[in-house]
Structures are given as structure tokens and as C-alpha cells.
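Q: Here's a chain of 56 amino acids. Please give me its 3D structure as C-alpha cells.
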Amino acid sequence: MNETLFFAKLQALPEGAYYVSFHQKKYLLNKATLLQGRLIKLYAEELGGNDIVSGN
């Protein structure tokens, strides 16, 4: 996946918190867009496990 496609998919994610699944694991995903769209914070925590995904 090229950077442009990744960024478009990242922007398309809805704001707020919601449940997602990846590789048969469930996560609570939080997305916040700040500074007039110049900063996107993404944080996911595995439900019932120890995995954490974070990026900004």
C-alpha cells in the first residue's frame, strides 16, 4: 500500500472510539484529529489482552 492510499484510509476512519477486529483479536480503537487536520492520533488497545497500537 502506498503512502497516499494509507493516508486516505486513515483520514476516512471515523472520529471517536469504536470496536475493531484484526487477526481474530478485538480492539478498542480511538481516533482524534487535531490542529485543523495536521495531527491524527490513533490508539488501539486489545480487549482481554496486552496488545497496544499507537501512532500520531
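Q: Can you summarize the key feature?
A: Helices lie at 3-12.
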